[in-house]
């Protein structure tokens, strides 16, 4: 018999709107991508000095994960090694890759920056989330052309059912050429703040919401 | 020297993306790493880039950074001593 | 009944050769692929790295493709992957890559990142820098009906992809998984590691007292795993694997090694193996000061300090998303040939805790192999391979 798991909280940030657990908590549709993400950070007083050092992709992942875990403080419930972070996107780190490429393309203005280069890997955003929340469990970054609820849904269920994790922070964080989209949720074995069954149908519904 | 220190503070804020800081928040003699500004190993490498890009000074051995980047003042002194 | 993950074919494309056995033979002879390069496309200063000869790559690629395929249809990186998978299929005729039960998992950190360079881009569509586009082209070339999975998780990508393959075989959604890891040497990557002051001026010296940085490399490694097919002459399974995060720093290795320890501990528990039963460890061994120190702490915490261990980074360079797979394949061949490969350029141990680094290649009974990896983003991973007795 299949064991059921639950989406116990979720947060989406797209098109100038922040939605936490089904409620729109902030919006400003006039700001450009980066300015909007910074305004979310200020609005919710997320106070984390390293925020400004992050690239745009990590900034987006940071605000989404912070708002999510503020609504559902899973780390009070689970040991660091029992929580997994499994996230995917389409553009990998191409936004900051382009910036690094620009620092090396001109021989007369050649100044590659370590603070830029370090972000040219998409999984750095998992690292930033892990550091902020002290999460030490399974971590994997996947790339898909678009959000793949079928794979993500079944893989997270197999991690939880196979005792590889007790809780998973999972979803989609993409940022490229001014387009941005974050959808993160927590999946647990027991019902929580929300008790939406964790499957591809529900993931798609919440993602497209 | 004071003008160089002031200029350096602006450059550090820009190069290290310390957007929430203003020049006056940085004490010229406070340690840049550890307790002071709380900079880390990537910032140290980034300051080496700053010296080369803005002041034309190449730091060949990154280990020298420890001495050079003690504070904004030691950085300014290093720039003055090594300017061509 | 538990579905096992058998290794049924493998290939390495590297400067040391275009098959696994060619590569293993070179390692036995203590030949390294790392050399001093003066290639202006990669770096304005000379750099020590392991580069695949492009002419050889093109001529080998020509041999496997029909006449109607132009060299220009595939990028340098894609040619390595196609050659690598092609060699695996040749080794074992039971592998049906066109089956709905066969999935390709693609592991890379940067894919076709060279196409971002304005000098390169014109030949190919801009879309080709997206990793899913590259993966799609590879799957289509082999008429594989499934959407490939792509893992891009810094230097643990390859090990993660193998773990993922094992987990997917257990669900029985697929019965055969082709795990292919690849990364190429580019100006993009070289300049970045130079800005980190992380590249040694000589061939890297893993775990050595005089180590002073990494050597970069490029290449492709492919492992075919299956729950239904067997290798014609051996029975090796993937019996466990896990990943973890240090939750400490995005680029600096942990100062305690507890993240890597966690991954090793979970892996050995899943494999039902005690520390005293481990025959051989294929370490990460990048030859940076902090990484190798960190590994020595984790290995000691796991009570593995006496187990023979090596790093292959001084042979292949650090091949990033391919490293975990290439190094696992060498581990598998070490088991098959009962040979422990000595660590090239290792002379005197210089890490925080004493560990048992293999200096000279020697014979030994190797029943299993623990492969470990660590990377930017604070990630760690471990995977365990075991010989099994069958029938």
Describe the structure.
The complex is a heterotrimer of chains A (209), B (84) and C (391). Chain A has 209 residues and is of the alpha+beta class. Chain A has one domain (6-207): Thiolase/Chalcone synthase (Peroxisomal Thiolase, Chain A, domain 1, 3-Layer(aba) Sandwich), CATH 3.40.47. Chain A is built from seven helices and eight strands; from the N terminus they run βββααβαααβαβββα. Chain B has helices at 2-15, 41-55, 65-68, 72-82. Chain C folds into two domains: 6-226, Thiolase/Chalcone synthase (Peroxisomal Thiolase, Chain A, domain 1), CATH 3.40.47; 236-387, Peroxisomal Thiolase, Chain A, domain 1 (3-Layer(aba) Sandwich). In chain C, 31% of the residues lie in helices and 20% in strands. Chain C has helices at residues 20-28, 54-64, 76-91, 118-121, 131-141, 157-170, 187-195, 258-271, 289-301, 313-316, 323-337, and strands spanning 5-13, 34-37, 47-50, 102-107, 149-151, 176-183, 216-217, 219-226, 236-245, 281-282, 309-310, 339-340, 362-363, 368-375, 379-387. The mean pLDDT of chain C is 96. The interface between A and C is large, with 51 and 54 residues. β5 of chain A pairs antiparallel with β5 of chain C, so a sheet runs across the interface.
Give structural attributes.
heterotrimer; B: mainly alpha; Non-ribosomal Peptide Synthetase Peptidyl Carrier Protein, Chain A; 4 helices; 52% helix; 0% strand; C: 391 residues; Peroxisomal Thiolase, Chain A, domain 1; 2 domains; 10-stranded mixed β-sheet; 3-stranded mixed β-sheet; 11 helices; 15 strands
Q: Which residues of chain B sit in consecutive blocks of at least 5 with pLDDT less than 50? A: none
**Beta strand % of chain C:** 15-25%
What would you report as the Rg of chain C, rounded to the nearest angstrom?
19 Å
- CATH class term of the largest domain in chain C: Alpha Beta
Provide the CATH architecture of chain B. Orthogonal Bundle
Structural class of chain B: mainly alpha
How would you spell out the order of helices and strands of chain C? EHEEHHEHHEHEHEEEHEHEHHEEEE
Q: From the alpha carbons, calculate the radius of gyration of chain B and give it in angstroms.
A: 12 Å
